[in-house]
Every structure is written in structure tokens, then in C-alpha cells.
Amino acid sequence: MKRTLTLILALSAAPAAAQTAPTSLTLGSAVTRAVTLGVDVTTARANLQKAQANLRAVRADPTSIITTLTQAEQDVAAQTAALNAAKLTAAQSAISGYVQAYEGAQSAALAQAQVALSDRQLKIAQARLAARVATSLDVSRAQNALNGDRQDLASAQASLPVLEATLARTLNLPAGTDLKLSAPGDAPKLSVTLAALQSGLDKRLPALVQAANGVTLAGLQVKLADNDYTPTRTLEDARTALANAQRGLEDGTRAAQTGVRDAYRAAQDAQARVTVARDAAVNAQEALRNAQARLKAGTAAAVEVQQAQLQAQQAALSVQQAVDGVWRALAGLGVAAGQDVTGLVN
């Protein structure tokens, strides 16, 4: 009976343990989940499959006319571009949500360290007041600083569950999922040229694919109307439609190329900022080592070391934010160019 009861208790506890176990994620696994199970991606994939099935049916039908076949082929091209765009957009959302949640946890840890320092500074001010080498105003200022830092900590801690819930929703995870996020890691260097990303946009961006399809179909209409048994007016209208479609494609292409150029420059700027942040972090670590050496030599107070530790932690967070900025910029460039440059989208 005792063994049976033990087994029952173990089995009843197993689901609860499974529910509370955190879901471990890396940036790569988060993006993979987003581009595989995302709602918009799933819808786009279904639309592509539908278009492909329709094209097979049209090709198999001996009565299909050239315009019907062309439109079916163009629909497959359009839905292929739409699926690719959906994946890139899903990856962008996953990357943004992931780095925000990870930064949120780091910011909360930094805020905790700031509270600890402010609390120590308040105690120092109180001790100095008792020794009559400080005023009550000094204590009041230290108390106000501590109160502000505590509020910042509470805000950082309160925002973290919201950021994690947003990420879980982006990844189509159940509400309330406990996430355990690994460090995003360094983003890849840009290995593709701007010219390469600006080339072939009419084959990758859904809006331009639609515009290019419109040009192709309008050109076909001109060809079909250019004969001696079709009214001249019909041919003229077809030529006008073709000219309008070509202008629309040209305007859209120029705008898209500008968007790619701006996103490319943003990615380059983000990568440069990582170097600046890392140099600052090296300096902060050197200042910390100096403070520790001075403390050991008896020429610095412990609070100075604590201040240096906080500054080093702030510098490390700045590096992380700069790295995350590169991830965001690369994701944005991928969406603008219709081509993954993060290396995370399959």
C-alpha cells in the first residue's frame, strides 16, 4: 500500500514538474521556431501550396489558355516571395523579442547592483552624519537616490515578464511559458555587398514581384492584341497599361533599393558601435583592476571598488546592447532586401 501511494504521488507530481520546467532557448532556436511555426508563415505556406496545386491543375488542363497559365505561374512566384517575406519578418520579430527579453534580464541585474551601491552610500552618509562630517541634506540626497534606484529596479523586474510573454507569443508558445534565454552571441559580419542585395529585388520582394508580374502580363496582352483582327483601340489600351506597369515597377524598385541602402548603412553603423562599446568595456575593466589594487594597497575605500564594479557591469551591458543592435539591424536589412543576412533563417 505504501509503495502504491508513493507511485501515485510521483505520477501526480510529474505533470506539475513538467509545467514548471523552463523552456531553454538560444537565439537560433527561437528564430527556427518562428520561421517554422509562426502564424503568418504557416498561412503563407498554405497559400503557396494552394497556388502550386492550381498551377498543376492548369497545366494538366488541355483547354487552358496562355493568360490563365501565365497568371497561375505568376501566382506561384508571388506566393513564394510572400512565404520568404513572412519568414524574414518572423525572424525579425523573434530576434527583436529575444534580445529585448535578454537585455531586460541584464538590466534588472544591473539595477539590483545599483540599489546595492546606493544602499551602501546611504549608510556611509548616515555614518558621516553621526561623525558630524556630513549634513542631514547629504543623507536626504542619498536616501532619495536609493529610492529612485529601487523604483528603477521594480520597473525593470516588472517589465521582464512582459518582454518574455511577448517573445513567447511571437514564437507561438503557450501563455505563461517560463523562458530560459542564452546569450545571443555575436552577430555575423556583413559578407554580402550592397549591390548584390539591391540586385534582383523584383524576384524577392512581394510588392515588386507583383509589379513585375503586372509588367509581364501587360506585355502579353500587347502581344496578343498586336494583330490585324483586334481593334486598334484595344492594342493602344494594352500599350498604355504596359507603360504604366513599367513605370510602377521602376518607381517601386528605386524605393526598395533606397530602403536596402539605408538598412545596409544602419547595419554597418551598428557593427561599428560594437567596437566602441567594447573599447569602453576594456577601459572599465582596467579601472576596476586599479580600484581593487588601490583597495589592497590601502589607498581606496571598498565603496570605490563597488562603484568600479558597477561601471564595469554597465559597460558590459552596453556591449550587449550594441551586439543586439547589430542583430536587429541585420534582421531589418534582411526584410528590406528579401534575403537573410543573419544566417539564422533556413
From TrEMBL:
Localization: Cell outer membrane
InterPro entries reported in the protein's UniProt record: TolC-like
Keyword Signal annotated: yes
Primary location recorded for the protein, binned into one broad class: membrane
Key words, A-Z: Cell outer membrane, Membrane, Signal, Transmembrane, Transmembrane beta strand
Signal peptide, first to last residue: 1-18
Protein's UniProt keywords contain Signal: yes
Name of this protein: Transporter
Species of origin: Deinococcus radiotolerans
